From TrEMBL:
It comes from Acipenser ruthenus. Belongs to the iodothyronine deiodinase family. The chain crosses the membrane at residues 20-41. The keyword Ligase does not apply. This is Iodothyronine deiodinase. Keywords: Membrane, Oxidoreductase, Selenocysteine, Thyroid hormones biosynthesis, Transmembrane, Transmembrane helix. GO terms for biological process: hormone biosynthetic process; thyroid hormone metabolic process. The keyword Phosphoprotein does not apply. InterPro entries: Iodothyronine_deiodinase (IPR000643). Coiled coil: none annotated. Responsible for the deiodination of T4 (3,5,3',5'-tetraiodothyronine). One of its GO terms (molecular function) is thyroxine 5'-deiodinase activity.
Amino acid sequence: MQQSAGVHTINALKNAVACLVLLPRFLVTALMLWVLDFLCIRKRVLQKMREQEASPDDPPLCVSDSNRMFTWESLKAVWHGQKLDFFKTAHVGYLAPNTEVVQLGGEQKRRILDYAKGKRPLILNFGSCT
């Protein structure tokens, strides 16, 4: 029971640190989405002003109210994506993770680097049979 509480405490601390690290990146991304929306709103206001003094020869400018980038759904998606990126085990410039794999013909589990031989590069092909 105490071991379970310790694991929960470690996970809670890990998530708290992740939130503190991710928060500045998330806020910068949210600000960028807001600025893009602001530019779209500004464009729509300028379009309304242009319509008041426009000639019939000018082509229409299409700006939609439904194409918002600064929405709750987009902010949730940005947070989720940054959290996934933070917790991934493979990072650019570091060694590749040596994860466990299962052979097709049996139940035997091996590690990816078990298939490497000498100085020969190991190529992984993740494909589809469809």
